[in-house]
Amino acid sequence: MPISRKRIFRPAAPPPTTIYVRPGYNRVLAEEFEALKVKRVGLVKDKIEAHSQGDLRENFGFKAAKDAIRAVDRKMTALDRFVARNTFTEVDPATWLTKPTATLQLGHVTTIEKRDVAMNRSHRFTFLVTTHGETASDPDSGLECLPHNSPLATAVLGLASGAQTKVMLPAGEANLTVLSIRNPTQAELDRLLTPIKPPEIEEED
Predict the structure, then answer these.
(1) 144-172 pLDDT, tens per residue?
(2) Is domain 16-90 annotated with CATH 1.10.287.180?
(3) Contacts for 198 with CB less than 8 Å, ≥ 6 apart
(4) What are φ and ψ of residue 4, in 5° steps?
(5) What is the CATH number of domain 93-192?
(6) Are 193 and 135 in contact (CB under 8 A)?
């Protein structure tokens, strides 16, 4: 069987990783997959009904249903691969209120100074290092969620307060300094932790 050009040049699958999530995330994944299955059943019925209406060359309902089925199939495949390639470890945010702060860990609030090497400009950010997919921010305090598996979080996790490191981020090379580490307050968690949603997954060809 000849090897297709697409297969030769397809990037290798990312290595399995551990993704930290809040309790209930696995249930949300399962519910999302079941919702896609139900949607597909409805689309197949629409396709069959459109097929019965005559000439397929000008049957736009049939074409639309077929395209919609393919889109759902891609989402289901992407979600299935996402689940198969990763291990999901649930973490209770209640434990973040009192954990040790010697080094920066998931659940800590940290202030980081980022100095861009190319532009020689400094910026300070205060983040709650949180679980997968969290992107909320509090406009009153300026505190933002930083997912633990983001490039910036990956670069600074495990560092002590005052530590520095040079990293290559998507925006370019930068020097990072961990200025402070503390535990969040319950009020901060209440404002920042939003309802758990299904992941936004890039579909694969």
Answers:
(1) 999 999 999 999 999 999 999 998 888 88
(2) yes
(3) 28, 29, 31, 32, 79
(4) -75, 155
(5) 3.10.50.30
(6) no
